[in-house]
Automatic annotation (TrEMBL):
Residues 28-152 form the Response regulatory domain. The lineage of its organism: Bacteria, Pseudomonadati, Pseudomonadota, Gammaproteobacteria, Alteromonadales. The keyword Transmembrane does not apply. Keywords: Phosphoprotein. One of its GO terms (biological process) is phosphorelay signal transduction system. The keyword Transferase does not apply. The modification 4-aspartylphosphate is found at residue 83. It comes from the Bacteria. InterPro entries: CheY-like_superfamily, Sig_transdc_resp-reg_receiver. This is Response regulatory domain-containing protein. PROSITE patterns: RESPONSE_REGULATORY.
Length: 201
């Protein structure tokens, strides 16, 4: 059973803000944990989160295999909240590796949550796995979870903005290359030859 310490500590309630409905696609947040209660309290703690006029879309997985399936179906995950110990002592770490290496996904923000920090010491995990945050469930209040999620959303937004700009620049370069190839074939061949010589000195 999950430790009752993870049921978020009592905190002063803040007045709810009235957010206008938004047509923007919600930020996808994957919860990976074998305890159903963790999914419930996480959704409860974050259900009112709104970032840049968009709320959260919660996606759940209760095992390594289910997590891989959800990740494959949702390559645009903003955040993955991963429990470390599930069916194995390192199932959550395997999910992190799957995101980063198998899917080659460097954008999704990965937050590890563990109820057994001794099984996965923070220093070793941070050094050896490409994660963005590490939290012990026993000290994770709803406010701390909110803070971590908001910080992760800002990072994800910035990463995606840079990626969109890179794609726009690449499209412009491709158009310029096509124009050069069709209108100035000799110049285009010279540029290609120079690039090959640079790549293979």
């Amino acid at each position: 059973m999950m430790s009752s310490d993870f049921i978020f500590a009592n905190e002063p309630l803040e007045p709810a803000k009235e957010d206008k409905p938004s047509s923007r696609t919600k930020w996808k947040l994957l919860i990976v944990d074998d305890e159903k209660e963790v999914h419930a309290v996480t959704r409860l703690a974050l259900m009112d989160v709104v970032f840049e006029d968009a709320g959260l879309e919660f996606i759940s997985a209760h095992s390594l295999a289910e997590a891989k399936q959800q990740i494959a179906q949702h390559p645009d995950l903003a955040i993955a909240l991963l429990d470390v110990v599930m069916e194995t002592d390192d199932a959550g770490l395997q999910v992190a590796n799957y995101i980063r290496h198998d899917c080659n996904n460097r954008s999704t923000r990965i937050i590890l949550r563990t109820g057994q920090p001794g099984q996965a010491p923070e220093r070793a995990v941070v050094m050896n796995y490409d994660i963005n945050d590490y939290k012990a469930k026993t000290e994770l209040t709803s406010q701390k979870l909110f803070t971590s999620v908001m910080s992760a959303l800002r990072s994800y937004r910035d990463i995606m903005q840079v990626e969109r700009q890179r794609q726009r620049l690449q499209r412009r370069l491709d158009k310029m290359n096509d124009l050069l190839k069709h209108n100035y074939p000799q110049a285009w061949q010279a540029v290609q030859q120079q690039q090959q010589e640079k790549d293979n000195p």
